[in-house]
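User: Mind token order:
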Amino acid sequence: MSPKQLHRELKCTYVQCATDHALKPLGGVSHGRTPPPTTPDTAPGPVLHEDKLDYTPLPRSVPLARHRAARLVAEWGYPHLADDVALVASELVTNALLHGSLRDRLIRVRLAVTAAVLRVEVDDPGGKRLPCPRDAAGEEQFGRGLTIVAALADDWGTGPRTGVGKTVWAQWGLGLTLRGGDPLARTKE
């Protein structure tokens, strides 16, 4: 099967998956183990670290986003999560590239850390359909990305993007609480 045929088949499978599931209007959905999600914007305490970068919707953006995520997470003091965050960022950017990108519209990757959570978000302009996990057959090359995301992250979900499109996010609980309101004096619960 040629790459073009494979991409067409994958795209049809994604649309079929979205059609088979009665998708809710874009408004925010959590798929993980900790609903409702605590986001860096709503978590107690300030955002300690944040990075946003826009990528062109090209295949070379996937490894760039993956390497950046791993490097930043390690620099921010969470080297034990760097590989998982990098793989999840890679999967989410790949999905945005395959299913949500539009010509001349950028894909944004945001990493944020509060005292409670580390979160990766990928915004894309294609907001008509929300992603849905599917069961890939043994020999299929595609269809396992969201299963990987769900296995590695504590929670993941979707929500509306500011403007047009959607945000797909994944997050890890850090199990940290603030002592005396000082974000630098953190201890594991």
About this structure: The first strand starts at residue 29 and ends at 30.
